């Protein structure tokens, strides 16, 4: 059985049986099979198609990009255990016909959510109905992930825990980390994003004139973050730490 698990805030909230459908469309528009109501998701964001017993992920010219295992992709063939990141949601591709990666074994079984209409119906997310369904369904085992955070060296105070699948940095309060300063208007909204996979974190440039830098090097594509890396974007300077210190 080939499944796609939809995860939000480290919980599985939906499951699609991909071997029962040929195409799964994803985006903000209500015509899609998987509708994600989030400003970071484009109206027509991505699609997964079955082709010759393979499943191919294709980005449909989305604004913020589609990430596969932390890397931006336009098109890629999915493998067992792959993690797709779209907006603040993670989609986990599982093929029971092949061995699972060690980090995923035994941790992703899920019961049907209350009122589940089945895999052929459109799902709206981030609504009161789905919040109630999350509560009723209870906690499910989490995909193991290295805890991490970024500590402010300039442009802010304290630290920001990277507990979400996508953390945005930009010039307005719609972003998780807000840039200040005279030249902040040159930054995008968001300007950069830190994405979380099952094991690593990646930073990517999203938009605007001000580009993020890691250890003094301008980020032009997804960059995997390493412990104690220094991230600079405009007036904000952050230090990445892969382990949370209590």
TrEMBL record:
Pfam families: FHA. Residues 24-73 form the FHA domain. Gene3D superfamilies: 2.60.200.20. This is FHA domain-containing protein. It comes from Desulfosarcina ovata subsp. sediminis.
């Amino acid at each position: 059985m080939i499944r796609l698990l939809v995860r939000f805030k480290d919980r599985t909230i939906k499951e699609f049986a991909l071997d029962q459908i040929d195409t799964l469309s994803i985006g903000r528009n209500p015509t899609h099979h998987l509708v994600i109501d989030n400003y970071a998701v484009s109206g027509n964001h991505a699609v997964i198609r079955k082709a010759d017993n393979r499943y191919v992920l294709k980005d449909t010219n989305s604004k913020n990009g589609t990430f596969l295992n932390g890397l931006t992709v336009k098109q890629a063939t999915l493998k067992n255990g792959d993690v797709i990141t779209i907006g603040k949601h993670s989609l986990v591709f599982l093929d029971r016909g092949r061995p699972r990666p060690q980090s995923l074994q035994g941790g992703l079984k899920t019961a049907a959510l209350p009122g589940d209409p089945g895999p052929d119906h459109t799902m709206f997310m981030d609504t009161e109905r789905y919040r109630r369904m999350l509560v009723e369904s209870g906690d499910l085992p989490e995909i193991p992930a290295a805890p991490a955070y970024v500590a402010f060296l300039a442009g802010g105070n304290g630290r920001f825990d990277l507990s979400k699948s996508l953390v945005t940095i930009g010039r307005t309060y719609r972003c998780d980390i807000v840039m200040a300063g005279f030249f902040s208007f040159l930054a995008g909204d968001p300007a950069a994003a830190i994405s979380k996979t099952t094991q690593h974190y990646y930073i990517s440039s999203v938009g605007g004139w001000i580009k993020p830098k890691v250890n003094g090097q301008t980020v032009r594509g997804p960059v995997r973050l390493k412990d104690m890396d220094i991230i600079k974007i405009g007036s904000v300077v952050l230090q990445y730490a892969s382990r949370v210190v209590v």
